[in-house]
Ribulose-phosphate 3-epimerase (Planctomicrobium piriforme), 227 residues
Amino acid sequence: MSKPKTRPACPLIAPSLLKCDFGNLESEIARLEDANARTLHWDVMDGHFVPNLSYGAMVIERLRERTELLFDAHLMITDPARWVDDYLRAGCDWVTIHIEACPDPLPVFRKIRDAGKMAGIALNPETPVKSLQACVGECDLVLVMSVHPGFGGQKFIASSTDKIKEVRELFGSDTLISVDGGIGPKTISQVSAAGAEVFVAGSSIFDQPCYESAIREMEELAAGARI
Ligand SMILES: O=C(CO)[C@@H](O)[C@H](O)COP(=O)(O)O
Ligand SMILES: [Fe+2]
């Protein structure tokens, strides 16, 4: 396998575009740039793996032309091995697939890493950490879902904090841990203290009038709670 890309500076807040104004994607991205966001989290949903539809590679590709921000693609789709090339071609920097959708993810990781991008594996709240055993050392990021995937604006599932600790123990310090769902000022400190470094946040940014202060507040809380 080729070497994965360098890690970003952490803590990193990753705004989830699922919660932005889809009618004004370009201006939402410009607002996030002005708010000092460094990454965009793209929630790709196929209406099959999850009971919701969002956008796909064609939309992401067109927005790739409009910003230099890091693209973090979260593929909530069935059979990601079939589609991963599209997301690499679209210019995604991190491509995360779900273990529930891809029981043998190693060939997919290889493809992502060979393209010079970061490979991620996500797990749903009910999926045990031990199901990721074969991924240790083979991927760059583990995304712990702290809500059931499919929708923004859900309540953080408290048991996710212990799950993050378990992921950290299994993967060691080289693998980035991202947490996704219900993250905001009330929950970010505990997941940061548990070992998470990337914090996906939808409602807690897009429901606020000032994206910059929402991002800054969470960054400061996460940094203050770091292990
Ligand atoms: O992947 C998902 C949902 O499936 C997330 O990325 C959510 O979109 C995060 O939204 P909030 O819970 O922060 O509102
Ligand atoms: Fe997500």
Remarks:
- The chain has a mean pLDDT of 96.
- The chain has one domain: 12-225.
- Residues 16, 41, 43, 74, 180, 200 surround fe (ii) ion (ligand 2) (CB under 6 Å).
- The first helix runs from residue 25 to 34.
